[in-house]
Design a protein that fits this description.
The chain is mainly α. It has 3 helices and no strands. The N and C termini lie far apart (about 60 Å). The relative contact order is 0.10.
Length: about 80
Amino acid sequence: MKEMKFEKAMKRLEDIVEQLEDGQLDLERSLRLFEEGIQLARYCAEKLQEAEQKIELLTEEHEALFGEEPPPEEEDEEEEEA
């Protein structure tokens, strides 16, 4: 499958699902669309996995550089303002 944007692939996949669910296509066209849908679903799953891995890597790098800091406590901020 040629490279395409994730959003475009998802939109095409949604269109295919709508066409298949409509039930107005002949068997041959349904099979072609189903095959295209499977390819698009695999492509999208791969892109999501790549994004997840990148996020994990960036998070690990951030933690290694800056350590894990606790989130700021709202109570302390309110007390300082008073």
